[in-house]
Design goal:
Number of helices: 9
Order of helices and strands: EHEEEHEHEEEHEHEHEHEEEHH
Structural class: alpha/beta
Oligomer: single chain
Shape: globular
Number of strands: 14
Number of domains: 1
Length: 273
């Protein structure tokens, strides 16, 4: 796809209000952040849910409240997380897909998150893929290590995910692949020779400044947002998710790459709103 897909991950499960006062939590706050990100150039929103105390939740009702408010103000493609948060069961993480969002992330292997572990066994991955296929949800392969790309290839070969495919490379998580160009190239080299798109994600200040624009310049796509990084530049807290989206949009425009609209994404991945 020649046009650049910008994904905005506006909340995540780890970022706190103490770290980033502009973190959207309530349905109205999330809808406003989504609308602003779409206006800034984003075409996909990667959505985690928080309860009223800003704790991560897999509540189907909460995801429903978010989606209801988002659809009042935005045409953006909505991608639910199934990564959830550390400690959630597979059933909890999968629950929101019953609402049949357009897309959902599919973690492609277990990964260390600093001192904690997010488990994703191959049987679990198969269950996630089968459930998404049943609901008509397009999976996004979320890969934290090069082995995860090969795990995704296994699901493809088993016919559990249909093309076109979407891969995301999450680089910079403590305990996983570093946020370096070398790591990005290694992940890209493991991709199947299939009908696919791929997106670079950099975690932390350095990673978020390096990986998304390099991915965009390499012909891939880019993800930014408070889930990945709360800073605009070193020592300067970003004022909004939209500010981070706008920066990657301006860079793409400088190099002559046009942006994908939400409907461009729907056409590329055969999505039904």
């Amino acid at each position: 796809m020649e046009k650049l897909i910008i994904t905005a991950a506006i909340t995540g499960a780890e970022t706190t209000r103490e770290q980033q006062s502009a973190l959207p939590v309530t349905p109205l706050e999330v809808a406003k952040a989504v609308s602003d990100c779409e206006k800034a150039g984003a075409s996909i929103i990667h959505l985690h849910a928080r309860d009223d105390d800003a704790n991560p939740t897999a509540s189907i009702e909460r995801f429903g409240e978010y989606l209801h408010e988002i659809r009042k103000v935005s045409n953006i493609v909505v991608e639910f997380t199934t990564g959830g948060a550390i400690g959630m069961t597979d059933d909890e993480r999968l629950g929101p897909t019953s609402m049949k969002p357009e897309m959902a992330s599919l973690d492609c292997g277990s990964v260390n998150f600093a001192d904690e572990i997010l488990p994703n066994s191959l049987p679990s991955m198969r269950t996630f893929a089968k459930t998404m296929m049943e609901y008509g949800v397009k999976p996004t392969f979320e890969c934290f290590d090069v082995g995860h790309v090969y795990n995704a290839n296994m699901l493809i070969k088993e016919g559990l995910v249909k093309p076109p495919f979407h891969f995301t490379f999450v680089l910079g998580v403590p305990g996983a692949m570093p946020a370096t160009v070398e790591a990005l190239l290694m992940m890209k080299s493991a991709l199947p020779q299939e009908d696919l798109e791929w997106t670079g994600i950099g975690i932390g200040g350095r990673g978020s400044v390096l990986i998304p624009p390099v991915s965009a310049l390499m012909g891939g796509h880019a993800r930014v947002g408070f889930e990945d990084n709360i800073y605009y530049r070193k020592g300067e807290i970003a004022v909004s998710n939209a500010q981070l989206v706008e920066r990657i949009r301006l860079l793409a425009e400088m190099f002559g790459r046009k942006l994908a609209t939400p409907d461009d994404v729907r056409k590329r991945f055969n999505l039904s709103k």
